[in-house]
Amino acid sequence: MGHMHHLAGGWITPALSYAMAVVGSALGLRCTVRALAAEGKSRRNWLVTASIAIGAGIWTMHFIAMLGYTVDGTAIRYDIPLTLLSLIVAIGVVGGGVFIAGYGGSRIRSVLLGGLGTGLGVAAMHYIGMAAVRLNGDLSYDPVVTAASVVIAIVAASAALWAALTIRGPAIAAGAALVMGLAVSSMHYTGMAAASVSVHAGTTALDGASATSFILPLAVVLGSFLFLTCAYVALSPSAQERAQNEAAARPLREVELPAA
What we know:
Layout: E1 4-5, H1 12-37, H2 40-66, E2 70-71, E3 76-78, H3 80-103, H4 107-131, E4 133-135, E5 137-141, H5 143-166, H6 170-193, E6 195-199, H7 211-235, H8 239-259
Antiparallel strand pairs: 1-2, 3-4, 5-6
């Protein structure tokens, strides 16, 4: 058995990966709330942004956490196509959940199906991401702990969606994002606890890219995208604020016209 370390880089990787999960969740939930106040194409655009934010946030969290992952007796490489597939699956499956929540008739159905979709997206991303790991050995999973990790993902995603769709206010929104970030992180570390490695003797050359040459640059790009989009969404007025601004400006225009 190869001994696995999840904190090879100290506490910086889990702390940073948790922060990324929270940022992605906060942005995604905020966009979902905006989508519900919008109509037509605008609603669809907000939901697409929400899907990308949550999907990219989950993915970045997973792979930043993986930077702290080492196994005694073997190097670790990542299969590039599978790693990219895990990102696409995360955004796609989360997108399914988010769109159900955005267009669902009843709130209960939206939360249950949306949470299921988002939770399965997190789990699918995690295990495809793990399938991308190349090492001199065999990875195996404890089925009970693996199932627990999927349940954690679904329950937490449902709870965060429910909070985002039901309760208004910045404190609640922040709380929902912290919960969802915690859920994604718990799912990751539960999923990692389910894994065990039997290392083969020998040092066969591994195909794939090292974490620092491939994962780190991609995580930095996605992280920057999330932070910039967060700033944009936070600063752009909501439909309600725009309506209030227009209403406030109207009497002023009427006052100015007769004087012209």
